[in-house]
Design brief:
Radius of gyration: 22 Å
Number of domains: 3
CATH architecture of the largest domain: Ribbon
Helix content: 25-40%
Strand order of the largest sheet: 2-1-3-4-9-5-6-7-8
Order of helices and strands: HHHHHHEHHEEEEEHEEEH
Number of helices: 10
Oligomer: single chain
Structural class: alpha+beta
Shape: globular
Distance between the termini: 22 Å
CATH topology of the largest domain: Umud Fragment, subunit A
Length: 269
Protein backbone atom coordinates (compact mmCIF):
# COMPACT_ATOMS: atom_id res chain seq x y z
CA UNK A 1 0.00 0.00 0.00
CA UNK A 2 1.07 3.58 -0.71
CA UNK A 3 -0.94 5.20 2.07
CA UNK A 4 1.91 6.80 4.01
CA UNK A 5 3.77 7.94 0.89
CA UNK A 6 0.62 9.31 -0.76
CA UNK A 7 -0.52 11.15 2.35
CA UNK A 8 2.75 13.05 2.61
CA UNK A 9 2.81 13.69 -1.14
CA UNK A 10 -0.75 15.04 -1.21
CA UNK A 11 -0.19 17.26 1.84
CA UNK A 12 2.95 18.80 0.34
CA UNK A 13 1.27 19.23 -3.05
CA UNK A 14 -1.57 21.07 -1.31
CA UNK A 15 0.37 24.32 -0.97
CA UNK A 16 2.95 22.62 1.30
CA UNK A 17 0.26 22.26 3.93
CA UNK A 18 1.53 21.62 7.46
CA UNK A 19 0.71 18.45 9.37
CA UNK A 20 -1.09 20.62 11.92
CA UNK A 21 -3.35 22.18 9.30
CA UNK A 22 -4.19 18.81 7.74
CA UNK A 23 -4.89 17.33 11.16
CA UNK A 24 -7.33 20.15 11.93
CA UNK A 25 -9.08 19.62 8.58
CA UNK A 26 -9.48 15.88 9.23
CA UNK A 27 -10.34 16.14 12.92
CA UNK A 28 -7.29 14.20 14.17
CA UNK A 29 -4.11 15.12 16.01
CA UNK A 30 -0.88 16.31 14.41
CA UNK A 31 0.94 13.35 15.95
CA UNK A 32 -1.54 11.01 14.23
CA UNK A 33 -0.73 12.56 10.84
CA UNK A 34 2.97 12.19 11.59
CA UNK A 35 2.58 8.52 12.48
CA UNK A 36 0.51 7.85 9.34
CA UNK A 37 3.13 9.46 7.11
CA UNK A 38 5.98 7.59 8.81
CA UNK A 39 4.14 4.29 8.53
CA UNK A 40 4.13 3.79 12.30
CA UNK A 41 0.32 3.57 12.38
CA UNK A 42 -2.56 3.11 9.98
CA UNK A 43 -5.69 5.28 10.17
CA UNK A 44 -9.10 3.73 10.64
CA UNK A 45 -11.28 3.35 7.57
CA UNK A 46 -13.37 6.39 8.48
CA UNK A 47 -10.21 8.54 8.56
CA UNK A 48 -8.96 7.11 5.25
CA UNK A 49 -12.31 8.00 3.70
CA UNK A 50 -11.94 11.54 5.06
CA UNK A 51 -8.46 11.78 3.52
CA UNK A 52 -9.68 10.58 0.12
CA UNK A 53 -12.64 12.98 0.20
CA UNK A 54 -10.49 15.89 1.37
CA UNK A 55 -8.00 15.48 -1.49
CA UNK A 56 -10.76 14.58 -3.97
CA UNK A 57 -9.40 11.18 -4.94
CA UNK A 58 -10.75 7.66 -4.56
CA UNK A 59 -9.89 5.40 -1.64
CA UNK A 60 -8.40 2.95 -4.14
CA UNK A 61 -6.03 5.63 -5.45
CA UNK A 62 -5.02 6.62 -1.93
CA UNK A 63 -4.10 3.06 -1.01
CA UNK A 64 -2.98 1.37 -4.22
CA UNK A 65 -1.62 4.01 -6.64
CA UNK A 66 1.77 5.70 -6.26
CA UNK A 67 0.53 9.24 -6.80
CA UNK A 68 4.04 10.67 -6.81
CA UNK A 69 4.56 8.95 -10.17
CA UNK A 70 1.43 10.56 -11.59
CA UNK A 71 1.92 13.79 -13.49
CA UNK A 72 0.28 16.88 -12.04
CA UNK A 73 -2.01 17.05 -15.07
CA UNK A 74 -2.82 13.35 -14.78
CA UNK A 75 -3.73 13.69 -11.12
CA UNK A 76 -5.95 16.67 -11.87
CA UNK A 77 -7.63 14.71 -14.65
CA UNK A 78 -8.30 11.85 -12.22
CA UNK A 79 -9.79 14.29 -9.74
CA UNK A 80 -12.01 15.82 -12.41
CA UNK A 81 -13.11 12.36 -13.55
CA UNK A 82 -14.03 11.47 -9.97
CA UNK A 83 -16.09 14.66 -9.69
CA UNK A 84 -17.80 13.93 -13.01
CA UNK A 85 -18.68 10.30 -12.30
CA UNK A 86 -19.91 11.06 -8.78
CA UNK A 87 -22.14 13.88 -10.00
CA UNK A 88 -20.17 16.60 -8.18
CA UNK A 89 -19.45 18.37 -11.45
CA UNK A 90 -22.38 20.12 -13.09
CA UNK A 91 -24.38 17.62 -15.15
CA UNK A 92 -27.67 18.77 -16.61
CA UNK A 93 -30.76 16.63 -16.02
CA UNK A 94 -33.70 18.17 -17.83
CA UNK A 95 -37.19 16.93 -16.93
CA UNK A 96 -40.78 17.76 -17.79
CA UNK A 97 -43.78 17.80 -15.45
CA UNK A 98 -47.53 17.40 -15.86
CA UNK A 99 -50.21 19.93 -14.91
CA UNK A 100 -50.05 18.72 -11.28
CA UNK A 101 -46.28 19.25 -11.16
CA UNK A 102 -45.51 15.50 -11.21
CA UNK A 103 -42.43 14.41 -13.13
CA UNK A 104 -43.26 12.79 -16.44
CA UNK A 105 -41.66 9.64 -17.77
CA UNK A 106 -40.49 10.68 -21.22
CA UNK A 107 -40.33 7.90 -23.82
CA UNK A 108 -37.36 7.93 -26.21
CA UNK A 109 -38.56 5.89 -29.22
CA UNK A 110 -36.03 4.15 -31.45
CA UNK A 111 -36.42 6.78 -34.18
CA UNK A 112 -35.44 9.51 -31.67
CA UNK A 113 -32.50 7.61 -30.16
CA UNK A 114 -29.88 9.15 -32.45
CA UNK A 115 -30.98 12.67 -31.52
CA UNK A 116 -31.25 11.99 -27.80
CA UNK A 117 -27.47 12.05 -27.21
CA UNK A 118 -27.48 15.60 -28.59
CA UNK A 119 -30.79 16.79 -27.16
CA UNK A 120 -31.01 15.03 -23.78
CA UNK A 121 -30.49 18.35 -21.97
CA UNK A 122 -32.68 20.38 -24.34
CA UNK A 123 -36.07 21.18 -22.82
CA UNK A 124 -37.58 21.73 -26.29
CA UNK A 125 -36.40 18.28 -27.44
CA UNK A 126 -37.87 16.59 -24.35
CA UNK A 127 -41.18 18.42 -24.72
CA UNK A 128 -41.64 16.74 -28.11
CA UNK A 129 -41.25 13.22 -26.68
CA UNK A 130 -44.26 11.10 -25.61
CA UNK A 131 -44.89 11.32 -21.85
CA UNK A 132 -46.44 8.91 -19.38
CA UNK A 133 -47.20 8.36 -15.70
CA UNK A 134 -46.71 4.84 -14.30
CA UNK A 135 -48.21 4.39 -10.81
CA UNK A 136 -46.30 1.18 -9.97
CA UNK A 137 -42.90 2.92 -9.84
CA UNK A 138 -41.42 4.27 -6.60
CA UNK A 139 -42.15 7.92 -5.88
CA UNK A 140 -39.51 10.63 -5.56
CA UNK A 141 -37.26 9.31 -8.33
CA UNK A 142 -36.67 10.31 -11.92
CA UNK A 143 -37.43 7.83 -14.67
CA UNK A 144 -37.12 7.72 -18.44
CA UNK A 145 -38.27 5.09 -20.94
CA UNK A 146 -36.24 3.88 -23.91
CA UNK A 147 -37.28 1.71 -26.85
CA UNK A 148 -34.54 -0.89 -27.23
CA UNK A 149 -33.49 -2.20 -30.65
CA UNK A 150 -31.52 -5.35 -31.42
CA UNK A 151 -31.17 -8.61 -29.53
CA UNK A 152 -28.02 -8.00 -27.47
CA UNK A 153 -29.91 -8.24 -24.17
CA UNK A 154 -31.96 -11.40 -24.52
CA UNK A 155 -34.47 -12.45 -23.25
CA UNK A 156 -35.66 -8.87 -23.85
CA UNK A 157 -36.96 -8.72 -27.41
CA UNK A 158 -36.32 -5.90 -29.90
CA UNK A 159 -38.68 -2.94 -29.49
CA UNK A 160 -39.21 -3.63 -25.80
CA UNK A 161 -39.60 -0.50 -23.68
CA UNK A 162 -37.09 -0.31 -20.84
CA UNK A 163 -37.77 2.09 -17.97
CA UNK A 164 -34.65 3.40 -16.28
CA UNK A 165 -34.12 5.19 -12.97
CA UNK A 166 -31.68 8.10 -13.17
CA UNK A 167 -28.27 7.42 -11.58
CA UNK A 168 -26.42 10.53 -10.43
CA UNK A 169 -23.39 8.86 -8.81
CA UNK A 170 -22.08 6.21 -11.20
CA UNK A 171 -19.78 4.77 -8.53
CA UNK A 172 -22.88 3.39 -6.81
CA UNK A 173 -23.63 1.03 -9.69
CA UNK A 174 -23.08 -2.59 -8.69
CA UNK A 175 -21.06 -4.75 -11.07
CA UNK A 176 -23.38 -6.59 -13.41
CA UNK A 177 -26.27 -4.18 -12.95
CA UNK A 178 -28.32 -3.68 -16.12
CA UNK A 179 -28.46 -0.03 -17.18
CA UNK A 180 -29.30 2.17 -20.12
CA UNK A 181 -26.05 3.98 -20.96
CA UNK A 182 -26.19 7.14 -23.05
CA UNK A 183 -22.84 8.19 -24.51
CA UNK A 184 -21.44 10.58 -27.07
CA UNK A 185 -20.27 7.93 -29.54
CA UNK A 186 -22.36 4.84 -28.79
CA UNK A 187 -25.73 6.56 -28.41
CA UNK A 188 -28.21 4.57 -26.31
CA UNK A 189 -27.35 1.00 -25.29
CA UNK A 190 -28.77 -1.42 -22.72
CA UNK A 191 -25.95 -3.37 -21.09
CA UNK A 192 -24.66 -4.97 -17.93
CA UNK A 193 -22.27 -2.40 -16.44
CA UNK A 194 -19.02 -3.18 -14.63
CA UNK A 195 -17.27 -0.27 -12.93
CA UNK A 196 -13.61 0.12 -13.95
CA UNK A 197 -13.45 3.84 -13.23
CA UNK A 198 -10.89 3.60 -10.42
CA UNK A 199 -8.60 1.24 -12.34
CA UNK A 200 -8.82 2.55 -15.91
CA UNK A 201 -11.35 5.38 -16.00
CA UNK A 202 -13.77 3.22 -17.98
CA UNK A 203 -17.01 1.27 -17.78
CA UNK A 204 -17.04 -2.30 -19.08
CA UNK A 205 -20.28 -3.04 -20.95
CA UNK A 206 -21.49 -6.58 -21.50
CA UNK A 207 -24.45 -8.02 -23.38
CA UNK A 208 -26.48 -10.97 -22.14
CA UNK A 209 -26.39 -12.38 -25.69
CA UNK A 210 -23.06 -14.22 -26.00
CA UNK A 211 -22.92 -13.38 -29.70
CA UNK A 212 -21.95 -9.80 -28.72
CA UNK A 213 -18.46 -9.06 -27.40
CA UNK A 214 -17.99 -6.89 -24.30
CA UNK A 215 -16.27 -3.55 -24.68
CA UNK A 216 -15.03 -0.68 -22.53
CA UNK A 217 -16.08 2.93 -22.83
CA UNK A 218 -14.30 5.92 -21.32
CA UNK A 219 -16.28 7.33 -18.40
CA UNK A 220 -15.90 10.88 -19.72
CA UNK A 221 -17.70 9.81 -22.90
CA UNK A 222 -20.80 8.86 -20.91
CA UNK A 223 -23.63 11.40 -20.73
CA UNK A 224 -26.27 9.62 -18.63
CA UNK A 225 -26.87 6.29 -16.90
CA UNK A 226 -30.33 4.94 -16.12
CA UNK A 227 -30.59 1.88 -13.85
CA UNK A 228 -33.03 -0.78 -15.09
CA UNK A 229 -36.32 -0.44 -13.22
CA UNK A 230 -38.93 -2.19 -15.37
CA UNK A 231 -39.79 -3.10 -18.92
CA UNK A 232 -42.84 -3.34 -21.16
CA UNK A 233 -43.05 -5.82 -24.01
CA UNK A 234 -45.66 -7.38 -26.26
CA UNK A 235 -43.70 -10.66 -26.23
CA UNK A 236 -43.33 -13.07 -23.31
CA UNK A 237 -39.60 -13.72 -22.70
CA UNK A 238 -38.58 -17.37 -22.70
CA UNK A 239 -35.20 -18.79 -21.80
CA UNK A 240 -34.17 -22.38 -21.22
CA UNK A 241 -31.88 -23.33 -18.36
CA UNK A 242 -29.38 -24.86 -20.82
CA UNK A 243 -28.89 -21.45 -22.42
CA UNK A 244 -28.34 -19.90 -18.99
CA UNK A 245 -25.68 -22.50 -18.16
CA UNK A 246 -23.97 -21.94 -21.51
CA UNK A 247 -23.96 -18.19 -20.98
CA UNK A 248 -22.43 -18.50 -17.51
CA UNK A 249 -19.69 -20.75 -18.88
CA UNK A 250 -18.86 -18.32 -21.68
CA UNK A 251 -18.92 -15.39 -19.25
CA UNK A 252 -16.39 -17.10 -16.99
CA UNK A 253 -14.10 -17.88 -19.95
CA UNK A 254 -14.51 -14.34 -21.24
CA UNK A 255 -13.51 -12.82 -17.87
CA UNK A 256 -10.55 -15.17 -17.47
CA UNK A 257 -9.29 -14.40 -20.98
CA UNK A 258 -9.62 -10.65 -20.37
CA UNK A 259 -7.59 -10.85 -17.15
CA UNK A 260 -4.90 -12.99 -18.84
CA UNK A 261 -4.69 -10.52 -21.71
CA UNK A 262 -4.35 -7.55 -19.35
CA UNK A 263 -1.64 -9.34 -17.33
CA UNK A 264 0.23 -10.16 -20.56
CA UNK A 265 0.05 -6.54 -21.74
CA UNK A 266 1.47 -5.36 -18.41
CA UNK A 267 4.40 -7.79 -18.75
CA UNK A 268 5.12 -6.48 -22.25
CA UNK A 269 5.35 -2.93 -20.86
Amino acid sequence: MYLSKNLKFLREQNGRQSQEALANALGVTRSAISSYEDGRAEPKLVVMNKVAHYFNITLDQLLNVDLSNTSEGGLENQKELKKYTSGQNFRVLTITVDHEDNENIELVPEKAAAGYARGFADAEFLRELPKYQLPFLSKGRTYRAFEISGDSMLPLRPNSIVIGEYVENWNEIRDGQVCVVVSKNEGIVLKKVFNKINERGTLLLKSSNIAYSPYEISADEVLEIWRFAAYISKDLPEEHSSMLDLRRAFTRLEDEFREIKMAYNKLKV
